[in-house]
Design goal:
Layout (H helix, E strand, L loop, with lengths): L1 H12 L2 H7 L4 H28 L2 H21 L3 H28 L4 H25 L2 H20 L8 H9 L2 H6 L2 H30 L4 H13 L2 H5 L10 H21 L3 H11 L2 H17 L5 H30 L1 H20 L14
């Protein structure tokens, strides 16, 4: 399930900028399509989170996967900007809607977090590489045919796992509470949502435009997908050995480290020190920082929010990620069209300075007995 879910995600989204630019659209139009998909995700994620907390996670997930396949078929049929925007948004909103469940399942499984989550890394790396191979040597459309096939395998994987639900008593008690009300009265949680919105907007802008930036710098589509694929593999040690440090290092240090690396990443991109430097930095930072932030977010939310609201709370985190991405993605695309990739990177670096400042003042209590990753 983990392997093919993330493989599918990479297939569909990793080369969307190259795919659309190849169809003759501008970077600004790519930003519109991606931003609308984040807006759609923003609307659906809280609903899916509530449905998963209240009802059967497996049934909700299987329904989402089935709908994704239908919308992907629609995406393959359209070439106009409106059709691409609608179909891409429908697929991504459901992919993102399922995403919070994935990390909660990994944390609640009978295995250490890393031993489950690393299969997502393997799948994403394979998907990124496969997307480049199919684009360059078969056809752009072959990417989306492969996506449908891998989503079918994801459904098979989902059917084969057993998901432990809360007891009926706990479910009944939870239904009496106001999900959103209980969560949104938590000031620390709200403050962290602001931080998430900003760093996620920066990260997702990079996810969209780093492949196009590398191609613009002289790298072929095939080599670009290889770089992206290897950068995914570079996050695997963090995931597999997360039990050694995630439950032992303070939240503040775990949060600030990837944020500082992201700041350095976009400053160096902006300085345009050569293609080799950009490739090396992409390998080191592109996915490793994102993965560390995913784990830190799970740790922070599990610390400050009641466990029975965890899926809903993580879904709201995904929602604000979409909100931040809508605005920052749009601005990044506009900057590329008017001033180029270097100015876009300096803009993202400036936002990271703001994020680090906000993160410095975040106060999260430390739970000595918390063993999410061990």
């Amino acid at each position: 399930m983990y392997n093919f879910y993330f493989l599918s995600y990479a297939l569909f989204s990793s080369l969307i900028s190259i795919y659309m630019l190849g169809l003759g659209f501008s970077a600004g139009q790519v930003s519109v399509v991606v931003s609308v998909s984040f807006f759609a995700s923003m609307l659906i994620q809280p609903l899916i989170g509530v449905l998963n907390d209240r009802f059967n996670i497996k049934k909700v997930t299987l329904f989402s996967f089935g709908a994704i396949i239908i919308f992907a078929i629609y995406f393959m049929q359209v070439k106009d900007i409106l059709g691409l925007t609608i179909s891409y948004s429908l697929v991504i909103m459901l992919v993102n809607g399922v995403s919070p469940v994935m990390d909660v399942l990994a944390a609640r499984s009978p295995y250490t977090y890393g031993k489950i989550r690393i299969w997502g890394t393997i799948g994403y790396a394979i998907g990124s590489q496969l997307a480049g191979i199919l684009y360059q040597y078969v056809s752009p459309m072959a990417i989306f045919i492969a996506f449908i096939l891998t989503m079918l395998i994801t459904i098979v994987g989902t059917l084969g796992i057993r998901i432990q639900q809360d007891s009926k008593k706990n479910q009944s008690d939870t239904k009496k509470d106001s999900y959103i009300g209980q969560i949104l009265t938590n000031k620390t949680y709200l403050y962290y949502l602001l931080i998430v919105a900003l760093y996620s907007g920066v990260g997702n802008a990079g996810h969209t435009y780093i492949p196009a930036m590398l191609q613009h710098s002289g790298l072929s589509v095939g080599m670009t997908s290889t770089v992206v694929s290897i950068s995914v593999i570079c996050e695997s040690p963090l995931i597999f050995y997360s039990y050694l440090f995630m439950d032992k290092i303070s939240v503040k240090k775990l949060l600030l480290l990837p944020l500082v690396i992201m700041l350095a990443q976009y400053i160096i991109y902006g300085l345009n020190l050569g293609l080799a430097t950009k490739i090396l930095l992409t390998l080191i930072a592109k996915h490793a920082t994102g993965m560390l932030l995913i784990m830190v977010t799970l740790k922070i939310v599990a610390t400050i929010v009641d466990g029975k609201y965890l899926v809903t709370a993580i879904a709201l985190v995904q929602t604000v990620r979409s909100v931040g991405s809508i605005f920052i993605q749009h601005l990044a695309g506009a900057i590329i069209d008017t001033s180029g990739y270097d100015m876009m990177n300096f803009f993202l670096a400036g936002l990271m300075v703001l994020v680090i400042t906000l993160a410095w003042f975040l106060k999260v209590p430390e739970k000595e007995d918390q063993k999410l990753f061990s």
